[in-house]
Amino acid sequence: MATEKRFIDRLKTYLLFAGPTTFVFFTVIILPFLFGVYLTFTNWDGIAKTYTFVRFSNYATVVRDRMFWNSFLLTVKYVFYTVLIVNALGFVLAYALTGDTVRGQNLLRTGFFVPNLIGGIILGLVWRFVFSNVLVFIGRSLKIGPLSYSWLANPDKAFWTLVIVSVWQYSGYMMIIFIAGLTHIPSELIEAATIDGAGGFHRLRTIILPLMVPSFIVTVFLTIQRGFMVYDVNLALTQGGPFKSTELISMFVYEKAFLAQQYGVGQSQAFFLFLLVAAISLTQVYFTKKLEVEA
Prior knowledge:
There is one protein chain. The protein has helices at residues 2-17, 19-39, 57-64, 66-96, 105-113, 120-141, 155-183, 187-195, 200-211, 213-229, 232-237, 249-259, 263-289. The chain is an all-alpha fold and 295 residues long. Helix 10 (213-229) packs antiparallel against helix 13 (263-289).
């Protein structure tokens, strides 16, 4: 009887404080997700009031769609470079701004973090102007060959504009996470290593980097997730061009569902992408967790 009373009291407390949030989460996230999975088994076009069940036909279409896999592989390439560069640059910035050698650290941290606060559409439009006008003007004025034309018009260079903008946007955010990790490293370990004659590079390799693994787990997870889900910057900066050379997977799925009015197929692609990203992210967390060490 006492156990049942305690359970009821806990349930009342939960419903009082977390009930509204749980209700919103269930109705805004869980139900739409389940309904989306349900639609993957239909031929709904996103407009009609009626539709029919096609079972696994949409998934078979996804597997056979060469354009889908081309877009997915392009996204994997984009994710690889952004994850690598964003985390490397974010760690370098954090390491440089946690010592005592750089003045105005708070101002610099704020400056590097600000790009993350800018909306993706605005960010893409600003950088579109930079690549199409500012850099072209500088390149032609100073006779710098690679900058004398817009990279956005070149299928080989347009991809790198997406990487550059993403690195500029996310590096400051990852820097903040790395700073939090660096400030929690016990100073006694660094001081003991210094007394023992360990140089800066040796301390970085043997003490700091191993203790920063939890931070890298978070930053790599976030950059992978954001890399696969990017849409707004892709839309505003390159619009998937030229000749669909920069059409990342989120844009491809959106166009399939809403522009081509194949909502069932598009929803199947989105769910298939969700499973792939979840598998990649969980694998990354599982293996990087094994690298953790205790101070």
